[in-house]
Amino acid sequence: MSLTRQSFLRLSGLSFVAACARKLRSAVAPARWGMVVDVAQCLKQPNCTKCIAACNQAHNIPSIPDPRREVRWIWKDSFQHGFGIEDDYAQISAAPLMLLCNHCDNPPCVRVCPTQATWKREDGIVAMDWHRCIGCRYCMAACPYGSRSFNWMDPRPYIRTVNPEFPTRTKGVVEKCNLCSERLVAGQPPACVEACPEKALVFGNLADPHSAIRELLRTRRAVRRKPELGTRPQVFYIV
Amino acid sequence: MNRLLARFTVWRGIFAVLMLAAAYSTYLRVRYGLGGATNLNDQFPWGLWIGFDILCGVGLAAGGFTLVAVVHIFNVERYRPILRPAILTAFLGYLLVVLALLFDLGRPDRIWHPIVMWNPHSVMFEVAWCVTLYTTVLFLEFLPMVLERFGLHKPLGWLKLISVPLMIAGVILSTLHQSSLGTVYLIVPEKLYGLWYTPLLPVFFYISAITVGLAMTIFESWHSSRAFGRQLELPLLAGMARVLAVLLLVSLFVRFLDLLHRGALPLLLRNRTETWLFGLEVLLTAVPMALLFRAGVRRRAAALYACAVMVVFSFITNRLNVSVTGMEAGSGTHYIPKWTEIAVTLAIVAAGFAIFRVLAQHFPVFEAEQPAAERVEESVEEFALVGNRTRTGVD
Fold first, then answer.
1. Is there a contact between A114 and B42 if contact means CB atoms under 8 Å apart?
2. What is the pTM of this model?
3. What are A37's strand-pairing partners?
């Protein structure tokens, strides 16, 4: 088969259009969602758990009394547990902080899942499909942040009030924070961000240089959890 | 005879108790989930079922691919008499691994998902595919024993046609996933203790799979010879033991070389549980290695068997260290298996022994007994060996 002049021109024209379309698509890049936790702001109300309650309500998270069997999407833990280091000088190191899935740019959980039950969306959210999950728990072994919970028992009897807008899970699957992707499509901020009385959780588009979250990261000193692992978390802590 | 009967009854009693305990554990597992049947938690998601039933199960079945490679690829025909029991062990081993997986998966009803819903970046995906395909290969390698038993010559001929590519596929698939089980742990650099976490984990898993494959072949030959009153293929096993000794030396050498290059040798000076467990692993490798380098040891069935058992235990220690004990410090929790986990594990091992016994009795697994003349010759040889033994005893 030989290439005629006409088909050559047609082919190169089409390639040009395809290349342009690609450039155009990256120009109107999708959002890159991220979050900033202002620790000092959060600590103004040390016993507040409103973000946790809002998250539990929005996502049908069971309230299991046994701590070894609990399911958590956003939770409180010590600085040392969260960051794996002790800091004798910062006052913050003594206080608990809010931890949640980091929605890593290079997520180990996504890499290891044998069924793509967990994957990274274009907007950076590390999402899950609970119908695909086989419960092998490799993602839990791989996640360096303990951000994943397994349903060690049937969660449904432990859901306080069922939110009919959001699915419940079965025993035997892994789950985690979805950065409220179901609320984002409706134009609402994540439930925890909305519930925080001190506005300590700031949510926004990291891809937009003019967004409030980028402004915050420009002006304040922020750290990420275990940066040495190369997972590139998209949740930042102002300490 | 009476004593023999009593022994059987005791073993059967233990077997029955194990099966009952496992049945109740299965009920707990199905009814209450992994939370009701295990001591695992979010910080420690993998326990005995992954560490022993899967990792050790796959490794202990490595005799199948090792012997297939020896006989069919390297064409060392004299090992053919022990090929079939090795294949049967491997086939049963893999079936039991799949059974254990059904216990350990949160949603065992979705065990087929990786076959349909691909994530080619996942090591687990590769392992799932390899185990599925290799179990199929092992089934087809085992099938001739069934077909021969029932005199079905036509399908036997068809199987013969594809037997060469089948054997090669089996060896390749095993090489892939025996090492990939080590690759699984490459994603946990901050959780696995420094004595075990190394980029060379896949290589070490592969080498140790071959050593334990050889050790298991010696182990099962010894047990079958006792259970079925057969002659032990001692010269064959002795030859195999020599290779085993060399491989053990290689594995020890590369492990220490790796520690040296990673700067992890100082870890051995710390008085921690991990150090002692690592020491146990090394001891259980070094002792049989030193023994098997001596021709006198290799010629004695009991010594050979003891060495094989040590190698099997060093392998089990290694896999449990990588998957359980080496992960404890990094996880910040303490894990002791629940009785249900132990019961299911023991029952699976017991089932393996029992099924092997039944199949070996009813199917042509072992070669037909040798002609009488040859046997006399061998017993003379054995007599000479006994003499040899007393002499080394004096030494």
1. no
2. 0.86
3. A201, A237
